[in-house]
Model the fold of this input.
Amino acid sequence: MLSLLLALDVAARAATPAPSLSDIALRADGGRALVLEPFVRAQRLTAVVFFSATCPCFAAHRARLAALARDLDARGVRFVVVDSERHAAGEAAAGAASGLPIWRDDGARLARRLDARQATETFVFDATGALRYHGGLDGDRTHLTSAATPRLRDALTGLLAGKAPSFASAKTLGCVLRLR
Done:
């Protein structure tokens, strides 16, 4: 019975249309803008990862996330790290060391549209704008191990191979976002 309920839940999520990204623009330092929908449509896959400057889980995963982005860049996967949080003075700059640019989500419009709740929470979109994966990076919190299940990597490599991910959603481990 439980497996049937799980299968129905997965089917319902797969049938749910992806949230529209059409009016979402993110900003970088210096005022540069990233209009999300055309960016997503120009990539094979786009991983939108939510950031928190004060989250130890995100801090622990910075290098792992940057390595994943480097590994998959040549295969058409782009990472967009998004800061939707309100900050104390100087807090946002703490994330710049992640090796990836951090885009500001003024007014937390994207976070609210996607119902993002935690740092490291990731949404993977294909070139049609369909949501193909939602969840965490892996099974580690702040102490990284080689035995962690690489949830995001597995989903991305499966999608690149033309297969649906073995799971469309996975648990996210990270701090609660403090939205603007």
About this structure: The chain has one domain: 2-160. Strands lie at 25-27, 33-35, 45-51, 77-83, 102-104, 122-126, 131-135. Residues 2-160 form a domain with the Glutaredoxin fold (CATH 3.40.30.10). The longest helix spans residues 56-73.
